């Protein structure tokens, strides 16, 4: 009997699959991280806006206390947005006698340590006034 010799084809292809994974996997993981970070930024913005709206609603009531807006906004941010909006603060700078403006600032959680993503949202509303017809 004759010995059958098999020739190995494609000897230059060894490691090609591994090389493609080395290139594709980091790009895929980076894309996933960008999507997650964008989602966290969006959630923090929405939480800050909701807190600012709550503060504006509390501050626009007729004869409301001076700190009603910021305190309500902070209470809302700390209770409802504690995981999305970090280090929240609120102020009514920019308000007038006819308009209430509540500004909520904070930070979005970051996947990369050392990167600070600041969030600022503003809600404006007219102050309630009762008039006679």
Explain what this protein looks like in three dimensions.
- With about 130 residues, this protein is an alpha+beta fold.
- The chain has one domain (about 15-125).
- The chain is about 45% helix and about 20% strand.
- It is built from two helices and three strands.
- The protein has a three-stranded antiparallel sheet, covered by helices on one side.
- Strand 2 and strand 3 (about 115-125) form a beta hairpin.
- Helix 1 (about 15-60) runs antiparallel to helix 2 (about 70-80).
- The longest helix is centred in the first third of the chain and has 44 residues, at about 15-60.
- The model has no long low-confidence stretch (mean pLDDT about 85).
List the helices and strands and how they pair.
Elements: H1 16-59, H2 68-80, E1 86-91, E2 99-108, E3 117-126
